[in-house]
Amino acid sequence: MLVRIETSPDDFHGMAVAQGILTARGGATSHAAVVARQIGKPCVAGCAELVVDYASGSARSLESGVSFGEGDWISLDGSTGEVFQGALGTVSADYDEQIDLKTVLGWADEVRRLGVWTNADKPEEAARARSYGAEGIGLCRTEHMFREGERLEIVRGAILVSGEAMRARAKAASGAELDADEESAIRRFESAMAELEELQQGDFEGIFAAMDGLPVVVRLIDPPLHEFLPNLEDQLVKVTKAGDAATAEDRELLATIKSMHEQNPMLGLRGCRLGIMIPDFVKIQTRAILNAQVAVRKAGGNPIAKIMIPLVGHVNELRVTRQLLETEADAIAAAAGVTLDYKFGTMIEIPRGALTADEIAQEATFFSFGTNDLTQMAFGYSRDDAEGGFLLKYVEDGILPVNPFQTIDVEGVGQLVAIAVEKGRAARPDLELGVCGEHGGDPESIWFFHKVGLDYVSCSPFRVPVARLAAAQARLGSELDK
């Protein structure tokens, strides 16, 4: 069992090998919950009374006083949020053995209008979701691929030198002569980008093969770059404790982390903004996606690629990014001697994006609603802080009927979705509409998405059967309401 105060991308390998995850902070849409749901691990996030002491390798409950240490047995119920001392007996579920369930889901498929896609970042996740009945990938998070093994070090190396490389490129573009350090910065940055492009192309070839003949929506890099660097406080403590003995490398790393620090990184340099400021990140991803498509097609496959540009709040952000990436696509098509089959779309996750959907639809062939961020920005809640803090009391006291990060807030956030659907389709009648936030696997939310006219919902692989059934219930319920 992995027990943490809260998880970060650095914890992914521990999460992958753990039998379950327990965190003191977070909630239903925190990093721990989202990753656990995707890889099929039980998780209890936001256990407020849990005190975790990394130094002693132990944890205790403030409420009960029960404590446990590294190597002790505990058991989790990810559905109820209960934590038990000791090892409880469990029974493994095998979907292929659930004949009655598969029969019922087959009936549901005959009834439902909504498509059911999945969120998957790896070929094995895609294959699992497809075996559960997923009809495509609605969200492939490319940044998760940057955190695998040696890749994190490559990404960190690129980030550390990116500022110097961008300045050196601007200097060269002005006609000025570069010194040896500036030329080295550009070479190191471009070398790291080339390595990542090659690695990501292999990833996408595997995903396209696993989803052969089904659409794959790939989201370009979304989180702020500081998430790929060591924690600021940890690095500051390390350098401070070392004093004069601190290495030049550690001091440089601390300076870089400080230079990238933002008061509110979720509203800072991320998504399409990052791609505009440092185009190489999205250019190499686009090349990797489309070259993978070419390779799989030449091998006899039928890859269907859709490239999603995230965090668009103004149509000009999408227009500039699309023009940049279409130049890359044209070069790939010319080099391969083929006609590429791809589409550009965007994620609607900023309220302004929803309110100006008619303008944005002129530059996008599809919308995917990122309802986690849309809820966060509409309510003004930091979802990790809120779910681990006041939000539980809000629900308990009836201030809010439900946690809006688990079930969509129809009256508020839902209206932003409805406005974007209406305006988007008015500007582009063939606009494809889906949702890829965690709401895509919530039965109550699926009823709303059916009613508002989305084409599909996308959810974690293990929620695909639930979504198939809920989509059929929504169709039948709508017919009864007429």
Describe the structure.
There is one protein chain. Helices cover 50% and strands 14% of the residues. It has 20 helices and 16 strands. Strands 9-10-11-12-13-14-15-16 form an eight-stranded parallel beta barrel, surrounded by six helices. Strand 7 and strand 8 form a beta hairpin. The longest helix is centred in the middle third of the chain and has 31 residues. The N and C termini lie far apart (49 Å). The model has no long low-confidence stretch (mean pLDDT 91).
Named at the architecture level, the CATH assignment of the largest domain is: Alpha-Beta Barrel
Largest sheet: 8 strands, parallel, barrel
Low-confidence spans = none
In CATH, what is the class of the largest domain?
A: Alpha Beta
Helix content: 40-55%
Task: Summarize this structure briefly.
This protein has 3 domains: 2-85, Glucose Oxidase, domain 1 (3-Layer(bba) Sandwich); 96-160 and 193-224 and 266-481, Phosphoenolpyruvate-binding domains (TIM Barrel, Alpha-Beta Barrel), CATH 3.20.20; 228-261, no CATH class.
